[in-house]
Automatic annotation (TrEMBL):
<keyword id="KW-0067">ATP-binding</keyword>
<feature type="domain" description="ABC transporter">
    <location>
        <begin position="5"/>
        <end position="248"/>
    </location>
</feature>
<keyword id="KW-0547">Nucleotide-binding</keyword>
<dbReference type="GO" id="GO:0005524">
    <property type="term" value="F:ATP binding"/>
</dbReference>
<dbReference type="GO" id="GO:0016020">
    <property type="term" value="C:membrane"/>
</dbReference>
<dbReference type="InterPro" id="IPR027417">
    <property type="entry name" value="P-loop_NTPase"/>
</dbReference>
<dbReference type="GO" id="GO:0016887">
    <property type="term" value="F:ATP hydrolysis activity"/>
</dbReference>
<dbReference type="GO" id="GO:0035435">
    <property type="term" value="P:phosphate ion transmembrane transport"/>
</dbReference>
<dbReference type="InterPro" id="IPR017871">
    <property type="entry name" value="ABC_transporter-like_CS"/>
</dbReference>
<protein>
    <submittedName>
        <fullName>Phosphate ABC transporter ATP-binding protein (PhoT family)</fullName>
    </submittedName>
</protein>
<keyword id="KW-0813">Transport</keyword>
<keyword id="KW-1278">Translocase</keyword>
<dbReference type="InterPro" id="IPR003593">
    <property type="entry name" value="AAA+_ATPase"/>
</dbReference>
<dbReference type="GO" id="GO:0005315">
    <property type="term" value="F:phosphate transmembrane transporter activity"/>
</dbReference>
<dbReference type="InterPro" id="IPR003439">
    <property type="entry name" value="ABC_transporter-like_ATP-bd"/>
</dbReference>
<dbReference type="Pfam" id="PF00005">
    <property type="entry name" value="ABC_tran"/>
</dbReference>
<dbReference type="InterPro" id="IPR005670">
    <property type="entry name" value="PstB-like"/>
</dbReference>
Amino acid sequence: MAKRIDVSGLHVYYGDFLAVEDVSMTIEPRSVTAFIGSSGCGKSTFLRTLNRMHEVAPNARVDGKVMLDDVDIYGPDVDPVAVRREIGMVFQRANPFPTMSIYDNVIAGAKLNNKRLGKEKADEIVERSLRDANLWEEVRDRLGKPGASLSGGQQQRLCIARATAVEPEVLLMDEPCSALDPISTLAIEDLISKLKENYTIVIVTHNMQQAARVSDRTAFFNLAGTGEPGRLIEMDDTNKIFTKPESKETENYITGRFG
Ligand SMILES: Nc1ncnc2c1ncn2[C@@H]1O[C@H](COP(=O)(O)OP(=O)(O)OP(=O)(O)O)[C@@H](O)[C@H]1O
């Protein structure tokens, strides 16, 4: 588990609109990388190109290359569904299947991948994934209850369990804590730190303390102006970005001199 992502010269479009321009970066396995930057600079758009979710939007496309270890995920013979299985995603709003049980929520993806998954193996995957997501103890006695019966923070951990149940190589998280209270946020941050032992993790966050707490590397994106594409300004060790960034733009952003 855990692979390296290498992006080179990536341009990201919605129809004729160039949303993100010319991004190149390397994301190391078994590390947490945070994407920060002002609203609309293309963090989520760029994140979605990393598992080919971007192209689900009408007329959306990319130019450039995204390598997952030695495989070009935009290569002609690559199945986007297989890419999304290897590179899982957790969204801003926890989105468990509401009427489906907690158990079935966790196992849904794994069942799709393996139609003949036996009960014993399924039980094992559910327990492992819920333990990995620090949720097992809270739900072990009510696995048959609907996903929607959990609190917001528990639902987000359920979504993380669902994502890890298929044993992806990479986990993409788009503002996973923005709808959560501080206690649930800390629980997810602890979980991210634990999960990085096995996964490559990329997290979009507006919360700079969060980026500083959980990530090893930080990428700062910015817009040159309204209607201009987003660009990667600087990527470095998180500690360096927050104490001694190379770019004035990064410094202004992290010190709150612009929004
Ligand atoms: N489905 C879409 N169709 C067309 N344009 C889009 C679509 N989604 C996003 N955009 C545009 O792409 C640009 C980047 O948006 P994106 O949501 O990626 O930025 P962001 O940095 O994640 O913003 P935020 O921090 O506010 O979530 C914006 O100009 C946005 O309006």
